[in-house]
Structure prediction request, 232 residues.
Amino acid sequence: MSLELTPSQALGLWHTVALSQVRSEAHDLTLRQMAILLQIYLVPPPHTVRGLAATLHVTKPVITRALDTMGALGLVDRVRDDKDRRNVIIKRTVAGALYLEKLGDVIIAEARQLPY
Amino acid sequence: MSLELTPSQALGLWHTVALSQVRSEAHDLTLRQMAILLQIYLVPPPHTVRGLAATLHVTKPVITRALDTMGALGLVDRVRDDKDRRNVIIKRTVAGALYLEKLGDVIIAEARQLPY
DNA sequence: TCACAATGATACGGAGCCGAAACGTTCACG
DNA sequence: CGTGAACGTTTCGGCTCCGTATCATTGTGA
Prediction:
């Protein structure tokens, strides 16, 4: 059962959610940071810097810096892989899960209010 | 007829669209710029700097700078109001309409591919 | 007319992100 | 062993954005 959207619904949803995010005055994440965060939480682990860089088609420093920023916000965590100590495994956090849960709530609420 | 989304659908949609945007274009608009653009194209005119600033809960320079950036990209246009020459009326452009049309297509396509 | 309000643009210092390149650590393998 | 590859990080200069304060222009009302 797929989700069928009209052009008006699609852009209207993007509009209201973007507006809500901008107005919330909370620390808004970059589109890249958001993509990384969603990738970490919606795709089965393990997640590595290199893997995320390949998935997003960006360079590794982009991932490192995004993890620095989101790590400082408590949204993600980094742990060395003991089996191969060159790797860094990106871990989920309670704060990160809560952040995305709230984002989902906003999207659902805005979708429900769409005229048609 | 409102749009009912499950949490999985909501975040999944955001995930795939954000991923698509990050992968495709270097033309990353800020969340604020995106909100301004959608406001201009989805809400009946006229649009002014002051009005947009009030709607988004941001300061006027934020709007001015965003219009500078998006104006350079051809996504919006600015025209002095002849009735009150203090005002600037923000105009839509063909390129801007096309940009949002493509964004809508991406959202619709990603929504259709959602597993459930 | 003339002081004042309103509108949008600009100046300034600060902060964050960018890509490319170089770096330190760790592993694989001859 | 030791040489090279893989991984993540850091550095560098440059660019964009931010918020506050201030500016020039235009309208308003006593």
User: Anything to note?
Assistant: The longest strand of chain A covers residues 76-80. The interface with chain B takes residues 1-7, 9-15, 18-19, 21-23, 25, 28, 31-32, 34-35, 38-39, 41-42, 55-58, 100-101, 103-105, 107-108, 111-114, 116 of chain A (CB under 8 Å).
